[in-house]
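Supplementary Methods, section 5.1.

A reviewer requested that the exact input to the structure prediction be made available. We therefore reproduce it here, unchanged from the version used in the analyses.
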Amino acid sequence: MGLPELILHEEFAAEHLAEESEIAEVLKREWGIEPSEVLDVLVPKSDSQRLRLLRSILSGPVDIDKLDYLERDSLHAGVPYGRNFDKHRLIQSLMMNEAGDGLALSSKGRTAAELMVFARYVMFGEVYWHHAVRSATSMFARGFYELHKKLPLRELFVLPEAEMIRQLRERGKGTPAEEL
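The structure derived from this sequence is encoded token-by-token as follows.
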């Protein structure tokens, strides 16, 4: 059920970090960061020690994305599994590796890191791969597949969640997707 018409996430990021976008303006005005620098981290076109370090903070065995989604998903699913590790100790034990191009963990953070890995394992078994979640995901994917050629995808993907769902329901009326 591949959808070649879908925009690649790299293209999506590049569009939203374009010089005239609202996000680009906030990055420049509030943080003093050029949007092209952010894009360089997200969409690797060049390579440097600094960029490898930044990428490892965003995506690696222990990264900010995992720390965020484990806690948030655990909270919203009403289960404790994704919050049963000491994230503060884990963060305090992070340091640069010897090459200076990635994250490393001091021995003090070993147990916290192991518990984070275990928390992720449990979240997959108990939440992400729960039969009801897989069923709902499958139904949504099928419904989206049925509708995707009728949807203004670029506009749809920037909408708030509630509005996106409303538009999907509206466009699904009278189609097989409505049953899903």
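Residues 130-180 form one domain. These observations are discussed further in the main text.
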